[in-house]
Design brief:
The protein is of the alpha+beta class and about 400 residues long. The protein has two domains: about 160 residues, Creatine Amidinohydrolase, Chain A, domain 1, CATH 3.40.350.10; about 210 residues, Alpha-Beta Complex (Creatine Amidinohydrolase), CATH 3.90.230. It is about 30% helix and about 20% strand. The strands form five sheets. A five-stranded mixed sheet has the order 4-3-2-1-5. Strand 3, helix 3 and strand 4 form a beta-alpha-beta unit. Helix 9 packs antiparallel against helix 10. The two termini are about 35 Å apart.
Length: about 400
């Protein structure tokens, strides 16, 4: 779980970007409530898809707003100063619209906001919230740029928080390391059981079981678990009933989500002995990954990473990489920085990114490999340590 110290550091970084005229912030995106308070609804629970709100005040106080069943479905205790919990279901009466219970909790704290300027995360706040709680549009629309001066538009709170998300604190990295170890276990298990005659779905169940046991808790597992071959060099998505054949390749590109954070790394394995052409594609992908690694560091434009990854593929006559060279990961997938030719993103220390070169050639097959990296001021730390090899 996220630590109290980590949540406080992220709040400090957020407040440093907020205009001085803002006295409170109303955070509504469930990922951002979690990022700043540690409150996360267990996605494998009866409150899946429900959420809370987070009120932050410049004084440093934090208030969680939720209904009682959403609160009891949280993973761990939130790092807040107070909780306003509205009863939704008490086993004694029928239930009202559950969203109205959340709005009632917001209304209960609206006197704290009255007459004070603040920012709301408008993309996630229900349209009914302001009208039902008495928070005026003027109160919720701070005028200012990031340094407290005047501007024609209020700053975008959601975008400010997304900027904070890019630099991972130590508590986030601890969870990401757990994600990596669990994903590695699934990759290792796939290598043990892969054979002609096994279906994609059977492989998936073996991978899922190994990853879950390594995680030490139920986890969300998603990605690409697909067989590839000369006729179908590119396919993705969840497994099917397809049974792997002698000359197929198996693409394993998946994520394990633990406490909101995720891994995302890949290997392509040959079901039987790889052909010379398949081995050639694999070695080109390795060269592309090494080229990308050579430029990974703080301050490098994302487009430059894409160019570096594409260069070995271009030189071999296969043209530039046909998809992104990688992307950021964390609470989302993908998230900035995006490593594509026209990206305006620049790598910053604290980013967690992927490199994932791939080649898909009819008559030979498809190939993709991927590692995850923490960007540092001098280069990178590789976070994923699975074996990348065809066999």
């Amino acid at each position: 779980m996220l630590s109290r110290e980590g949540c406080l550091r992220r709040r400090e970084r957020l407040w440093s970007q907020v205009p001085a005229t803002a006295e409170w912030l109303l955070v509504a995106d469930p990922r951002h409530v979690y990022l700043l308070s540690g409150f996360l609804v267990n996605p494998i629970s009866f409150s899946q898809y429900e959420r809370g709100l987070l009120l932050l005040e410049r004084s440093g106080e934090a208030t969680l707003l939720a209904d009682n069943f959403t609160r009891r479905s949280a993973i761990g205790a939130p790092h807040v100063d107070r909780e306003l919990i509205e009863d939704w279901y008490t086993h004694q009466q029928g239930v009202v619209n559950r969203d109205h219970a959340l709005l009632a909790a917001l209304k209960a704290c609206s006197p704290r906001l009255s007459g004070r300027h603040g920012l709301v995360e408008a993309e996630w706040l229900p349209a009914a919230a302001l009208s039902l709680t008495g928070i005026s549009a003027e109160t919720a629309a701070v005028r200012g740029n990031g340094d407290g001066g005047d501007s024609a538009a209020a700053p975008d709170l959601g975008s400010l928080i997304r900027h904070v998300r890019r630099v991972k604190e130590s508590d986030e990295l601890e969870i990401l390391h757990r994600c990596m170890r669990a994903t590695e276990a699934g990759h290792a298990r796939a290598r043990e059981v892969l054979r002609p005659g096994i279906s994609e779905l059977e492989l998936y169940t073996e991978i899922q079981a190994a990853a879950t046991l390594a995680a030490g808790q139920p986890a969300v597992i998603y990605g690409d678990f697909r067989g590839l071959n000369a006729e179908t060099p590119k396919a993705g998505g969840l497994p099917t009933a397809y049974v792997l054949q002698q000359d197929d390749l198996f693409l394993l590109d998946y994520s394990v989500v633990i406490d909101g954070y995720r891994s995302d790394f890949t290997n392509t394995m040959s079901v039987s002995e790889p052909t010379d052409e398949q081995d050639m594609l694999f070695r080109l992908c390795q060269s592309a990954m090494e080229a990308g690694e050579s430029v990974l560091r703080d301050g490098v434009p994302a487009a430059d990473v894409y160019t570096a990854v594409s260069r070995p593929l271009n030189d071999a006559g296969y043209g530039p990489l046909s998809h992104h060279a990688g992307h950021g990961i964390g609470l989302g997938h993908p998230e900035p920085p995006i490593l594509v030719p026209h990206s305006g993103d620049v790598l910053v220390a604290g980013d967690v990114v992927t490199l994932e070169p791939g080649l898909y050639v009819e008559g030979i097959g498809g190939m993709r490999i991927e590692h995850n990296y923490l960007i540092t001021s001098t280069g990178y730390e590789r976070l994923s340590n699975h074996l990348i090899s065809l066999s």
